[in-house]
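Anyone up for a design puzzle?
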């Protein structure tokens, strides 16, 4: 179900690709740094499942998701502060009608903030590289979907008592159109708690 009637034009797509490539280079450098620090034992990343139970691997995945959901919300709110927005987050909001390419279309300052949010996981949660990889894949899928411009859940599902607690593609698309609402990432909890959830998207 197409959320906005129009599709992004070629000029927007080119801009998004340019900034996305820059973001990918910066993210790659950040994760190489984390990898090097992990090898040297400066992070909480562990390389053998014998160090923790298999059950803990699932628990650490949930902890990473919960942490990232909170950290994303508050860092996102920070980037929307007047006086900071135009220098950090405006580039991303130039994609008022988002496409999958806008997922990483960030100003370098925003890329640094986002990278720090991800990097901190390695220092606050004991986590196996495979678990971290699963988390990053989930995050990738979630963010590509969030900028896709097509809602995959029915309106009934989005209003479901449980499914309605997850952030939807429509939620984030609405954020691009109405920047003062729907700052969340995976769930609507923080938007609901802080009264920033767009009224038509409550589950």
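Challenge accepted. My sequence:
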């Amino acid at each position: 179900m197409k959320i906005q009637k129009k599709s992004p034009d070629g000029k927007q797509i080119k801009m998004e690709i340019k900034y996305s490539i820059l973001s990918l280079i910066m993210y790659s450098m950040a994760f190489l740094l984390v990898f090097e620090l992990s090898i040297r034992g400066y992070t909480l990343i562990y390389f053998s499942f014998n160090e923790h139970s298999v059950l803990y691997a699932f628990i650490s995945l949930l902890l990473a998701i919960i942490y990232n959901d909170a950290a994303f919300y508050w860092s996102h709110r920070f980037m929307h502060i007047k006086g900071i927005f135009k220098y950090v987050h405006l580039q991303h909001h130039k994609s008022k009608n988002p496409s999958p390419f806008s997922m990483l279309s960030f100003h370098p300052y925003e890329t640094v903030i986002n990278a720090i949010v991800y990097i901190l996981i390695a220092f606050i949660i004991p986590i196996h590289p495979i678990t971290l990889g699963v988390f990053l894949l989930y995050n990738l899928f979630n963010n590509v979907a969030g900028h896709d411009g097509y809602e995959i859940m029915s309106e009934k599902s989005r209003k479901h008592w449980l499914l309605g607690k997850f952030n939807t593609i429509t939620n984030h698309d609405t954020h691009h159109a109405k920047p003062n609402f729907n700052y969340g990432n995976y769930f609507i909890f923080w938007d609901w708690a802080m009264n920033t959830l767009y009224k038509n998207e409550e589950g």
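A detail worth pointing out: The chain has a mean pLDDT of 93.
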